[in-house]
Design a protein that fits this description.
globular; five-stranded antiparallel β-sheet; two-stranded antiparallel ribbon; 7 strands; 280 residues; 9 helices; Beta-Lactamase; alpha+beta
Length: 280
């Protein structure tokens, strides 16, 4: 019927016949957004926090923050340590974080190739993504033989001291890593920053970086970037082994295998087209 309800652009009109603005803010629940401020404050801090610190960071009165924290804890988004009284991410937060990560095409493509590389090489392999505090391990496949190094999911890699950190810096815009670099090395001079920049240029030219006996004695590693079709860094792959056992030659067996795995992942990303970058 002609008098039926209009659809499409004609349906988005107010009583005066004027079309509604496409960018008109949608109605939300203010209390949910306030609770989100507490979650955001905890995520930014990256350490368990007491009530007072969380309230201050979220710009809430402690009593108001406490009520929200009770509800967030009941939902499983947070949990409270009964000894220290500090709040940390809860099981539901972990599930949501893993769900987000598992939807990332680069991570999905990397999983089988990283597992295969660990089996074929006999060395540990780590996948790192850009996190708020720098490159963060999100997948760690341990070596077949014991390796005395403290690496696990959630480890944030030092920017200057690790091959992973240097690759991260080499393929990220300076504005995204220099503040972290300065925070990790508060006494560094401009000359040292320039020297570090020269190191990064060498990494970009080679497409691979290595660490020998640093930062952990008797442990060496090789790291390579995974870039998408636009040249943006999506992942850092790191092969880790005992010094002397792992071949860290630029053109050695381990380097070629690692670079081949990264190239395979990059090819899949290029075939799938542009995607949203992993969250930083």
């Amino acid at each position: 019927m002609a008098r039926g309800k209009a659809t499409g652009a004609a349906g988005n009109a107010d009583k005066e016949g004027k079309p509604e603005k496409a960018d008109k803010a949608q109605r939300g629940i203010q209390s949910v957004e306030v609770g989100g401020r507490l979650l955001a404050a905890l995520a930014a801090a990256r350490v368990p926090m007491p009530l007072a610190a969380l309230a201050e960071a979220a710009q809430l009165a402690p009593a108001q923050a406490h009520a929200y924290l009770v509800s967030l804890t009941r939902l499983g988004l947070l949990k409270r340590d009964h000894v220290s009284g500090r709040y940390e991410p809860g099981p539901l937060s972990l599930q949501l974080g893993m769900l987000r990560l598992e939807q990332d095409p680069a991570y999905r493509a990397a999983l089988p190739r990283v597992d295969a590389l660990a089996r074929s090489s006999g060395f540990s392999v780590a996948i790192s993504i850009a996190g708020p505090q720098g490159p963060t391990i999100v997948r760690y496949v341990p070596a077949s033989a014991p390796l005395h190094v403290n690496l696990h999911v959630g480890t944030v890699m030092a920017l200057a001291a690790t091959a992973t950190g240097r690759v991260y810096c080499a393929f990220r815009p300076p504005a995204q890593w220099q503040p972290l670099w300065r925070a990790q090395q508060p006494d560094a001079t401009e000359a040292q920053l320039a020297d570090f920049g020269a190191v990064l240029q060498g990494i970009r030219e080679r497409g691979i970086e290595r660490s020998i006996d640093t930062p952990s004695p008797a442990v060496s590693s090789l790291s390579v970037p995974v870039l998408d079709a636009a040249g943006a860094l999506r992942l850092v792959l790191t092969l880790v082994g005992s010094t002397g056992a792992i071949d860290v030659d630029w053109n050695g067996t381990a380097a070629r295998a690692l670079m081949a795995a990264a190239a395979d992942i990059a090819a899949i990303l290029s075939a799938e087209g542009p995607e949203e970058e992993s969250p930083a």
